[in-house]
Design a protein that fits this description.
Layout: H1 10-14, H2 17-26, E1 31-32, H3 33-37, H4 44-56, E2 60-65, E3 68-73, H5 78-104
Antiparallel strand pairs: 1-3, 2-3
Helix pairs in contact: 2-4
Protein name: ArsR family transcriptional regulator
Pfam family, one: HTH_20
InterPro entries: ArsR-like_HTH, HTH_ArsR_DNA-bd_dom, HTH_MetalResp_TranReg, WH-like_DNA-bd_sf, WH_DNA-bd_sf
Length: 107
């Protein structure tokens, strides 16, 4: 799994709440699959499948340490998501400004 195959894009990968939690856990540093699977009410095999999707999207990297596979976050692909969302900030900012004006008005 070492090198990402990019079968899934970042948007597909983060669509699942389990995968988002995995990314959050890996944000604190490299972890073995056993430590990750302890955080979920599912089998290690199910967690491994989620990790494979994240790896295929380039969001996690893995490496073998003895018999153990350890995973780490690779946040670089999230920059694509950040750029995409940045475009829509103008709409959020406009709506928030309009809401502020409405709430602060005397009408």
């Amino acid at each position: 799994m070492g090198e990402a195959l990019h079968k899934h894009d970042v948007f597909q990968a983060i669509a699942d709440p389990t995968r988002r939690k995995l990314l959050h856990l890996l944000g604190d540093g490299e972890l073995p699959v056993t430590a990750l699977s302890d955080q979920f009410p599912m089998s290690r095999t199910a967690v491994s499948k989620h990790l494979r999707i994240l790896a295929e999207a380039g969001l996690v990297k893995d490496r073998k340490v003895g018999r153990e596979t350890r995973y780490r976050l690779d946040a670089e692909p999230l920059r694509e998501l950040k750029r995409w969302l940045a475009y829509f900030e103008q709409y959020w900012d406009n709506k928030l400004a309009a809401l502020k004006l409405y709430v602060e008005s005397d009408d």
